[in-house]
Design a protein that fits this description.
This protein is mainly beta. The chain has four domains: about 170 residues, Sandwich (Jelly Rolls); about 160 residues, Galactose-binding lectin (Jelly Rolls, Sandwich); about 150 residues, Leucine-rich repeat, LRR (right-handed beta-alpha superhelix) (Alpha-Beta Horseshoe); about 70 residues, no CATH class. It contains four helices and 43 strands. Strands 1, 2, 3, 4, 8, 11, 14, 15, 16, 20, 23 and 26 form a twelve-stranded mixed sheet that branches. A seven-stranded mixed sheet has the order 29-31-33-35-37-39-42, with no helix packed on it. It is elongated. The two termini are about 55 Å apart. The protein binds 2-acetamido-2-deoxy-beta-D-glucopyranose (NAG) (8 copies). One 2-acetamido-2-deoxy-beta-D-glucopyranose binds next to strand 40. The site of one 2-acetamido-2-deoxy-beta-D-glucopyranose has 5 residues, from strand 31 and strand 33. It holds the Pfam family Malectin_like. This is Leucine-rich repeat receptor-like serine/threonine-protein kinase. Keywords: Glycoprotein, Leucine-rich repeat, Membrane, Repeat, Signal, Transmembrane, Transmembrane helix.
């Protein structure tokens, strides 16, 4: 759903300002700050590390629309802005787009916008652009961690164009605002926010301390009122601007007020609806208006009594579909007609899930320790699923876990951060054919690890004995590194493990190119009651001069009896070729 504002709808204001809005206000693609409605829009450089910038040469354009950042990299699965935020804090995010034919294609690109791990919406600015207008989108979110990401990504309609963005606001909200919605499970995507009966002037900061945009909405069929007193915004959970209560629609005495709003059809789903009312007359004992509120014929609130202090009526989960009609029916014998001043409608968007915090933290640490990581390593590592980080595969749970990390041959260097072992759901870790340096960290807590590929890198240090404690590890590839020492014997003896290593890390061989290991073997034969076991020692001789692979399939246990035997490697059951 896109809304619009006119290019030159901004006025300079000279009055005592409320405290400046808290948050981040970015003039995307610009290298200088610009002031809009008393808010400083800063260059976006510190919050995004990808994309190219350009300037739109068009006269009369407000400064925040005259520059943009676009993202031509087709291989990248998403392009993200990242913001440090307080844990569990509430934010209103606004993305602003003005195409301005920046790419000379005369066709605004269509692409996705993403918040955290949730696909927010498709961005389609075609209609607004055709009218010479910019487009903006708003969403209210709560952030579980300390990082908030807002990303753009190509979709099936983007084709050869590039996603772009003109301005990005991340505005901190108070706890009480929109608090009837559990923002831990849902997000609120703005459909419409209007001030009714207005004179064409949009309300924003400083009138609205939170820089929400209240579009004027007029209806020539409806009589209007102008209020003679003002409300106290903090009397309302949503802290609406006092100015939104100045103008309003009314109906003559005894008549219902019928309002078609929002003025466009809505997809059938649940919405957050807040309506704002105030008696416009001078405060006094008789200054109240009583009426019932219904939406599409269903009772929204009965016996509403609106005084000059104003009132907000809301529903956190109201089903709407198609056209919406709001009807205010005056109470019997009411001396004056009903009144309505403003309204907000948000679509309730279920959270797309998020990545387990300890996995996400481990991925962030890895991102820090890798030089030149993949460009799309930003935002949520797993979600949305089609926009996961390059090389990352995740489970299907709501709180998703990283189950595979495949960075084979991506030209990476740097070290492996020790916190990688927090990714305890990882089954496959493939880092082969890069230039990783430093030691192999302790991975012993990654108890689900099945395959570990570290080959063709520059890892140094010893081969960790702790790998032997990984119960499911069946493939270890460490060849062509700068590792010191031989493979620990506990690893060589690990049941079901195939190891690929360079000769210098293999156990020492004797002149004939063989090594000798003595094992105590417990073989079990038969099933159930007929099961019997045979115990014997055996010495394995491995011809490691043309070494490729060695598997021992036996467990070493304390010998209850001693017996020695020598087996030749040709005994196929004891060795596997790579
Ligand atoms: C975008 O910037 C990158 C490097 O900053 C440059 O290599 C690339 O050519 C630019 N792409 C376009 C389309 O200008
Ligand atoms: C974008 O919006 C325009 C105008 O509303 C519409 O014609 C077009 O089909 C939309 N594009 C996509 C890919 O949805
Ligand atoms: C929302 O905030 C108000 C004001 O603090 C409080 O009275 C109300 O109980 C809150 N509602 C919810 C659902 O938390
Ligand atoms: C509405 O509230 C006022 C006090 O603010 C009261 O005097 C009046 O009787 C109420 N009207 C109805 C219909 O309840
Ligand atoms: C995330 O994974 C850790 C294990 O690393 C686990 O202890 C924790 O419960 C998981 N958190 C959630 C929210 O699933
Ligand atoms: C990892 O990527 C490489 C190269 O793209 C591929 O050959 C290999 O099969 C992948 N491994 C897994 C576990 O997906
Ligand atoms: C070296 O291997 C040969 C071949 O079987 C064996 O006879 C000899 O005992 C081994 N020597 C040592 C020191 O292990
Ligand atoms: C079996 O071997 C152990 C040590 O390997 C040794 O202490 C013990 O004496 C041996 N027992 C017999 C019966 O040879």
């Amino acid at each position: 759903m896109s809304l619009f504002f006119f290019l030159l709808l901004w006025f300079s204001i000279s009055q005592a300002l409320p405290p400046p809005p808290r948050g981040f206000f970015l003039n995307c693609g610009s290298s200088t700050s610009t002031n809009l409605n008393e808010i400083d829009y800063k260059p976006d450089k510190g919050f995004v590390s990808v994309g190219n910038t350009t300037t739109i040469n068009q006269k009369d354009l407000i400064p925040i629309l005259s520059t943009l950042r676009y993202f031509p990299d087709k291989s990248s699965r998403k392009h993200c802005y990242n913001f440090p935020v307080a844990k569990n804090s509430k934010y209103l995010i606004r993305t602003t787009y003005y195409y301005g034919n920046f790419d000379g294609k005369n066709n605004p690109p269509v692409f996705d916008q993403i918040v955290g791990g949730t696909k927010w919406s498709v961005v389609n600015t075609s209609e607004d652009y055709a009218k010479g207008q910019s487009s903006y989108y708003e969403i209210i979110v709560s952030v579980p961690g300390t990082r908030l990401s807002v990303c753009l990504a190509k979709n099936a309609h983007t084709l050869s164009s590039s996603p772009f963005i003109s301005a990005l606001d991340v505005q901190s909200l108070e706890d009480t605002m929109y608090n009837s919605t559990d923002l831990g499970s849902y997000k609120l995507s703005l459909i419409a926010r209007n001030s009714f009966g207005g004179d064409g002037e949009m309300i924003s900061y400083p009138d609205d301390r939170y820089n929400r945009l209240w579009q004027p909405f007029s209806d020539p069929k409806l009589p209007t009122v102008t209020s003679r007193s003002s409300i106290n915004p903090s009397d309302f959970w949503n802290i609406p601007p006092s100015k939104a209560f100045v103008e309003g629609f009314t109906a003559s005495k005894g008549k219902p007020l019928e309002l078609q709003w929002p003025p466009f059809p809505l997809p059938a789903t649940k919405y957050y609806v807040a309506l704002y009312f105030k008696d416009d007359r001078s405060p006094g004992p008789m200054s109240w208006r009583a009426f019932d509120v219904s939406v599409n014929g269903l009772s929204f609130l009965r016996n509403l009594n609106v005084s000059t202090n104003g009132v907000m009526v809301y529903s956190g989960q109201w089903p709407l579909s198609g056209q919406t009609q709001i009807t205010l029916t005056p109470a019997k014998n009411a001396q004056v007609g009903p009144v309505i001043n403003a309204g907000e409608v948000f679509q309730i968007l279920p959270l797309g899930g998020f990545t387990n915090i300890s996995d996400a933290t481990a991925m962030e640490d890895l991102l820090e320790s890798i030089k030149k990581p993949p460009v799309d390593w930003s935002g949520d590592p797993c979600l949305p699923r089609v926009n996961s980080w390059t090389g990352v595969t995740c489970s299907k749970e709501k709180i998703t876990r990283v189950i595979s990390l495949n960075l084979t041959n991506l030209g990476l260097s740097g070290t492996l951060s020790p916190s990688i072992n927090k990714m305890t759901a990882l089954k496959d870790l493939w880092l082969g054919k890069n230039s990783f340096t430093g030691p192999i960290p302790d991975l012993s807590s990654m108890t689900r690890l099945e395959t570990l590929h570290l080959e063709d890198n520059q890892f140094t240090g010893a081969i960790p004995e702790s790998l032997a404690r990984l119960p499911h590890l069946r493939k270890l590839s460490i060849k062509n590194n700068k590792l010191k020492g031989t493979i620990p014997s506990v690893l060589l003896q690990k049941k079901g493990l195939t190891i690929q290593a360079s000769p210098e890390n293999m156990p020492r061989t004797n002149q004939t190119g063989q090594i000798k290991y003595t094992y105590f073997i417990k073989e079990t034969f038969g099933h159930d009651s007929s099961t019997f076991a045979m115990f014997f020692y055996m010495t394995l001789l491995f011809p490691f001069n043309s070494w490729k692979t060695c598997i021992s399939y036996v467990n070493v246990i304390e010998p209850p009896l001693n017996h020695s035997n020598t087996l030749n490697l040709d005994y196929r059951g004891l060795y596997h070729q790579a």
